[in-house]
């Protein structure tokens, strides 16, 4: 083949994905961010020990417009309603309850670190029985417990539901999830977590995405700042996940973390390709490289159609009507072009794949095959 015919073929089929052109081709702003990749330390790290704690509780939502639990189908709702009325001095027999405006719910929330008593947090309310909707309901006072069994907050308030459900005799319309809602600022903190932050002399930063090079860059950036600001070294990389900080004398940990949190660094990450076959999503990292490899991809479609034919007997005969099968099979095979693929950068890889003109399923199949051939220099993560 002449050389001038090989050049357009290699250029046009370098390595591309047509179906992912809108999502994979970076814009000018994204290209600038990818070229620099500079971010603040506090955006890629967390302080060890500073985390949320989960809270959970069981309660009742009242005031529903005949969309609550059926008490006979949800006995726990009936028992809870009877117990609540007994505590309020109302003695009601279980055989007299026929309400449909009450629903049993599970209330969940996250307790932020260092939050004080008297502050408020949002809670999520989820139906536990056969309630159709929590729209318009109000959560009755519900204690929220932690994993240790202690009560840390108490929730109460109107439930905000984004979805709705409307039903008639012949049709039902549902939008969103009407059985889950939120109570903004619905929980009041009653117990604080132990706080030892003020007495810490050594702090540990943990990377959200662990990487050896990123840990070293963070430690170097902090040391350059502390040498100039405090005259000493303030960070030591422990491993690929954590950096040990040495709090300078006469400086509070809060002020020290606030100062180093705004230092810019360039995080690093291993080359990785993430594939989601259920949704057809493909995410390719900036450092993904593809060695030279030849690829061809063609689609084979087989269509089988059943068209039964009724065979009628002649008039005044003793024959019977029978149904004879009639099967039609059609086979179509799309074009399959052999392409030499080589991606030295993300832009080259995406630009080449965009020109092949494949659907996401074909793109995923090609990337898996390239990885099996050993030409994809990246981790392949399949979800």
From TrEMBL:
Assembly mode: The basal body constitutes a major portion of the flagellar organelle and consists of four rings (L,P,S, and M) mounted on a central rod.
InterPro entries in the record: Flag_FlgI
Record gene name: flgI2
GO MF entry, a single one: structural molecule activity
Family to which the UniProt record says this protein belongs: Belongs to the FlgI family.
Subcellular location: Bacterial flagellum basal body
Taxonomic lineage: Bacteria, Pseudomonadati, Pseudomonadota, Alphaproteobacteria, Hyphomicrobiales
Keyword presence, Lyase: no
Keyword field contains Signal: yes
Keywords of this entry: Bacterial flagellum, Cell projection, Cilium, Flagellum, Periplasm, Signal
Protein name per the record: Flagellar P-ring protein
Signal peptide: 1-21
Domain of life: Bacteria
Any one of the GO BP annotations: bacterial-type flagellum-dependent cell motility
A Gene Ontology term for the protein's cellular component: bacterial-type flagellum basal body, distal rod, P ring
Its job: Assembles around the rod to form the L-ring and probably protects the motor/basal body from shearing forces during rotation.
Main location: other
